[in-house]
Every structure is written in C-alpha cells, then in structure tokens.
Specification:
It is built from three helices and eight strands. Helix 2 packs parallel to helix 3. With about 130 residues, the chain is an alpha+beta fold.
C-alpha cells in the first residue's frame, strides 16, 4: 500500500510537523482541522463561519485523497465551549446529515484562543469498480 501525505499549506503543518491528511490504502485520516483560511492564515471570529471553513478545508483534503464527505465513517468535534455545539448542528447536518458517521464531541482547549471549533474525520474510500 502506498502512503500519501496531503498538505493544506497551513503554517501549522510545517511548524509542528504533521500532514493535513494521510491516505493509507483506502483509508484517509484527516487531522484536526480548524476554521483558518489556510491561504491567508486568517480566521473569522464567528463560530458558524469557522465551522463552514473547517468543513471546506476537510473537503479539500478528502478530495485530494480521492474521497468525499460520503466516505466519512468517523468524525470528532472539539470545542472549547461545549455550550457552543448546538449552534453548529445545522452546518454539520448540511455536510453529514445523509452520511451519519460515528461521532464524538469533546470540550477541550484548542491551540489558539481564536479557534472555536476543530473537526477531525476518518474516511474510507469506496472501492473502484473495474
């Protein structure tokens, strides 16, 4: 099996030493992803805008790995304020409502106080029909 490393261009990846995602066979492991726009390294103060940007960043990583949200089997949400989680549900439902992956929400501090949500996913690519 080939291992493919996927980068978003985030300065955090280079500074800390990790990949946005790793493809190993049919599996794609997407690192905890925040609401930063990695092109400009800016982040909105708005929780829902951060949630949307997280999911755009994840979508990009999945697509680079040959997958989509339909292939996601596990998702972990991390929020510093657990009470913020219900406000995110409509956005999360937009992306995962039909997929319904196994999910966990954890309340914990994040690396930067501007970050209000971090999302990590695991996907398994559908086998290609020959």
């Amino acid at each position: 099996m080939n291992r493919q490393l996927i980068s978003s261009g985030s300065t955090y990846e280079r500074e800390i030493g990790y990949s946005r995602a790793v493809v190993d066979g049919d599996w794609i492991f997407v690192s905890g992803t925040t609401g930063f726009d990695y092109q400009s390294m800016t982040i909105s103060d708005n929780l829902l805008e951060q949630t949307e940007q997280c999911l755009r960043n994840i979508k990009s990583a999945l697509e680079q790995g040959g997958a989509s949200f339909a292939d996601v089997v596990r998702v972990t949400y991390i929020l510093p304020q657990a009470s913020d989680f219900p406000a995110c549900w409509p956005v999360l439902r937009k992306y995962f409502g039909d997929v319904r992956p196994a999910a966990t929400m954890i309340s914990a501090g994040l690396a930067d106080p501007r970050m209000r949500i971090e999302i990590e996913v695991t996907a398994r690519r559908s086998p290609t029909v020959v």
